User: What shape does this take?
Amino acid sequence: MNLWQLVLTELKAIVSDKAIAVTLFGGVLFYSVLYPLPYLHQVPTEQQLIVVDLDHSSLSRQLIRHADASAKIQVIGQVGSITEAKRFIEIGKAHGLLVIPEGFRRDLLLGKGVTLSYGGDASYFLIYSAVAEGLVSAGMDAGKQVQLIGMLAQGKNPKEAEQNLNSLHLNSVPAFNPSLGYTPYVVPGLFLLILHQTLLIGTGILGAGQWRSRSYWQQVSPLQLVCGRILAFMLIYMVFTSFYVGYCYHWYKVSIQVSFGLVALWLLPFLLATAAAGVAMSTLFSRRDLPTQVLLLISMPILFVSGFVWPIALIPEPLVLGSQIIPAVPAIMGMLELNQMGASWASVLPKWLQLWGLFVLFFGLAMLGIKRRARALAELNAS
Assistant: This one.
């Protein structure tokens, strides 16, 4: 059996195995829709706010209008006490509250400091930050209006007063995420993680189901088997990767900062290293269900140590260092730097070389594992 006959045999074994076929073809398609769903709305907007207005003045009503006009907040009503407002949050009808103290207008016009109390459902920190940001912006707008009234009352020229209020202009331009949404930086990392996990599971199931019985894998050398199995999965995952980076990137409006040639060059050692790691890992199991169970358990830790949903600085350093042996970790960070952040090839070259190093490492481990399995099966048959 030559190499290409082996690759064809491997492809037949993959497609005819229902568990592998569902994991690979069904999983890649299903997760391409499921994983990005929570991020489609990009940022939380129109969060329900309940107001406790104890001042009932023209200025307090103006503040409420400013809050309602914010894209972050939607004022759904007013109540007479903080207890009633808390009840709205407890039953889920509101996500935040604003308390306007008594004497709000009088104290502002007298130049005294005024404290506005606001809060939100902190169990969802994105919602809480949206409520807080909207209320801070509304409060600052209301404060400027009061300052303007005071300046005009002192006889200042209206244009001069306006300039004094707006003497500082902030020009905030996001460097790597112009939309300030989640999709442009979360979805690319998730797609690589999906490719990583499904490829490991597929190779793990295929190998774990073969090591305990005689099959075509014993008719070839360990080197030929590892090369053939990696090539078979590479042919499949070239299609999956093109689907994710091509169609799905376009569908979810993920920007492409570099050429597809550089993306392909970057992903080549990632797929090779992951396939080799899957073959090596499969030699540790003799039950087909174990690879899936183990990989599902470690999928969330891999997600966090990859650094795109949680800052690496907040993760224990030994865990970060240990995670560098997982192909998905340098691949995800390098892909985000190269494509989303517009980094040069020279800056991501160390991670690219790291992926090639992982490929060599796992290729060697796969060879050793298959030799060990072949000896164990031979000894079992001899006994």
About this structure: The radius of gyration is 29 Å. Strands lie at 47-53, 73-79, 96-100, 117-120. The chain has a mean pLDDT of 83. The longest strand covers residues 47-53.
